[in-house]
Write the structure tokens for this entry.
Amino acid sequence: MTSTASVAAPAPAGVAAVSEFAARAVGVRKTFGRTVAVDGIDLDVPAGSVLGMLGPNGSGKTTLIRMLLGLTRPSAGSVELLGHPVPEASALALPQVGALVEGPGFHPFLSGRENLRRAAATEPLLTGREIPAAVDAALERVGLGPAADRRFRGYSLGMKQRLGLAAALLLPRRLVVLDEPTNGLDPAAPGTSAGSSPSCTPAAPP
């Protein structure tokens, strides 16, 4: 994955960046001790596009996703998300990003609805008044409406994965990043078709 395009200058602090790229990586490398997980990756993801990353286990897909989201710092190279350098300016980009990485993590003794309300409360772009409707809409979108009030610990693997998808889709996003989104899902279940669960689905540019 290579590109010769130049890296756009970041927007001033506090100003929403408008970039032709949803995500960019230039010369990204990540090592863990002597282990090289990602080596020299150049990646451009144009806004409005869909990108799927394929590779065997251990090939560095999740590590690259974590670097794109600012969850881990690259050993070398640079990363941009929605025009902002990450992890330095992650706070400016992440409110516009929905993500499901390495499986969903929720409180086992809370219901799906309660867990999703807790997740919604951390969203800076959702007001308190908007949270109940956003939660209900996300649950229905992934087909969990009838099971919304069951405890998370009683969910099947596929239901847990769908709740993670619901959290990523709580509000309109400029970018959605999903790591193995169909793991444990029934292909016929609502919101789990190949077209609705890509590995990376940026929305159209603003």
Remarks:
- Residues 6 and 167 are 34 Å apart (CA to CA).
